[in-house]
């Protein structure tokens, strides 16, 4: 029973966070390789993500 609960918790809580971090690292590497922006970090991605959520929730009203 605990194994099922742990797998569900992992898929809901941990896996999206790890995917977000990996996507952020790949996007930062892409920007550095193209010499577009050299100082992209996780806070920039978090701000963009929160702004997108704000726009989506605002548009649904």
What features would you describe in this structure?
With 61 residues, this protein is mainly alpha-helical. It is built from 2 helices and no strands. The mean pLDDT is 91. It has helices at 2-33, 42-59. The N and C termini lie far apart (40 Å). The protein has one domain (2-59). It is flat.
How would you summarize the topology of this molecule?
Layout: H1 2-33, H2 42-59
Keywords: Membrane, Transmembrane, Transmembrane helix
Transmembrane segments: 6-24, 36-59
What's this entry about, in short?
The protein is mostly helical.
Question: Quick check: average pLDDT?
Answer: 91
The global form is: flat
Terminal residue distance: 40 Å
The low-pLDDT segments are none
Number of helices: 2
Briefly note the structural class of the backbone: mainly alpha
Over the alpha carbons, how many angstroms does the gyration radius reach?
16 Å
> What percentage of the residues does DSSP assign to strands (E)?
under 5%
Q: Could you tell me the number of beta strands?
A: 0
Count of the separate structural domains: 1
Q: Roughly what percent helix?
A: over 70%
Largest sheet: none
H and E string: HH
């Amino acid at each position: 029973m605990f194994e099922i609960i742990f797998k569900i918790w992992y898929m809901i809580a941990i896996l999206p966070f790890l995917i977000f971090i990996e996507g952020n690292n790949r996007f930062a590497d892409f920007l550095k390789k193209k010499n577009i922006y050299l100082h992209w970090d996780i806070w920039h991605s978090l701000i963009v993500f929160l702004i997108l959520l704000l726009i989506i929730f605002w548009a649904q009203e």
